[in-house]
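Extended Data, panel c. Modelled sequence:
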Amino acid sequence: MAALSDYLENKLLDHIVGKTSYTMPSVWVGLYTVTPSDAGGGTEVTGGSYARKSTVGSDWTAASGGALSNAQVITFIPATADWGAVVAFALFDAASAGNMLAWGTVTKTIQNGDTASFAIGDLDITLD
């Protein structure tokens, strides 16, 4: 299960009351070796050919009951060095830097030559 970031919660609230419009972002999945929080932080994987994975709307289920999950397998490029113990994922609005939109916990160890992959339904996002 994952939670929305403080950044996205504020954008959605402003949008709901008509204060400012929130434009639908492109969404990238990032991996973490130290878990972030709603405010951000944590330690994103670096090195070993790591790059965030781009997704499109059809990669995700339609929200229902305040939740959604990945509707397609999410597969990263193969690691060319150890990425270590991956303990969290996050959704971002950019391929690098950008704003964290949501995050959740996962458990994977990615070694040199491994390909990080998440089966359908593995990445859950729930409004809290």
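The first helix runs from residue 6 to 16. This feature is highlighted in the accompanying rendering.
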